[in-house]
Amino acid sequence: MSTIYLASTAMEEVERAQAELERHLTVRPTGECVTCGQVEPCSGRQEAGTTIIKYGLLPRRRPGASGVRRTSPTTVSAAPISWFASATDGDGHELTGTGSEA
Questions:
Q1: Residue 44: which residues within 8 A CB-CB, separation 6 or more?
Q2: What rounded mean pLDDT belongs to the chain?
Q3: pTM for the structure as a whole
């Protein structure tokens, strides 16, 4: 792994591109960018990504930056259901050794 050193002006450009990228993360259900209204991937996101990659870096990930939240909580069951539990052969007979005999 190599270390990349950039001048302060390049780092400022990368920081601006990162901020622009984060502005263009949120997408409407129709697939349009909330910031500019273009269909994703919009030109703002592409240009920001290109600027960051030009310097040999990857965009930073910041959880929650898109502002998208889960609409309903995920329910957790006591035990996951195994697909082996209802394994049958082609005639509808339960297969042995699958744990369905218990």
A1: 20, 23, 24, 33, 35, 36, 38
A2: 77
A3: 0.57
